[in-house]
Specification:
Elements lengths: L10 H12 L3 E9 L4 E9 L11 E5 L8 H5 L3 H8 L2 E5 L18 H16 L9 E5 L2 H12 L6 E5 L14 H5 L6 H6 L15 E5 L7 H8 L1
């Protein structure tokens, strides 16, 4: 006779174990379509265990950093599924290509990631999931390039997003004219400085009014983006 290892485990712990297996957030990869760029784009969607098609949930869009893709957050921070469950939120991790910086490129019309994330993706998610379909139920955040993208999109589209955050965000592009394919998206800094000005988050604070947008800025003091983050905060 084979003895079950569960015989020595209290029944309560066994029930909790199976409850956690049966009732945890689900992770799906969805294929969305960008009309502006005329292509399919993947995204990870994390649904909390309590997701019910009859209950409207808030959505948090989480953007990846430079050289990353839509799988970054779920593969590098798997705990994100626990947050979806804990706060009963839908989490969406879109693909921003490896170096889009989440704006519409004035150099290459095939890179329109501001339009995609703030309009096309939001619309797709709202049409395929039961969500709160206004700014009170939408937040956007991200890391590095994604931190820039989150603030950039939220500042410019306050009718879409009600809260935003940046983790070690590249919130001023101008000090880094030779880095991260920025010149490929904006053109040479010396030739087109106005493009760099226009697409740097630090220059968009004029769009904000007190109380108009919930904002959190997070950056370590040893990070190479620390100075631009403190400048943005000031």
């Amino acid at each position: 006779m084979i003895k079950s290892p569960f015989l020595k485990i209290p029944l309560t712990l066994i029930l909790i174990f199976f409850y956690c297996i049966s009732f945890s957030a689900t992770v799906d990869t969805v294929i969305t379509y960008s009309t502006s760029m005329k292509k399919n784009i993947k995204a990870v969607v994390i649904k909390p265990a309590a997701y019910n098609s009859g209950i409207q949930l808030p959505v948090v869009y989480v953007l990846h950093g430079y050289s990353g893709n839509y799988t970054d957050w779920i593969s590098k921070v798997p705990e994100i599924t626990k947050y979806a469950d804990e706060y009963n939120i839908l989490v969406v991790c879109p693909d921003g290509n490896y170096s889009s910086w989440y704006f519409d490129s004035p150099v290459d019309s095939s890179w329109k990631y501001e339009t995609y994330v703030s309009t096309e993706l939001v619309s797709w998610i709202d049409n395929h999931f039961t969500t709160i379909r206004n700014r009170t139920g939408r937040a956007i955040t991200g890391l590095s390039m994604g931190g820039h993208g989150a603030l950039f999109l939220a500042f410019k589209h306050q009718d879409i997003f009600g809260a935003c955050g940046s983790m070690s965000g590249g919130v001023d592009l101008r000090p880094f004219p030779l880095n991260w394919d920025l010149s490929k998206r904006l053109g040479d800094y010396a030739t087109y400085p106005e493009r760099w000005d226009k697409n740097s988050v630090i220059n968009l604070t004029y769009l904000l009014k007190p109380g108009s947008l919930a904002i959190i800025i997070d950056c370590g003091s040893d990070d190479f983006f620390y100075r631009v983050n403190t400048a943005l905060h000031e």
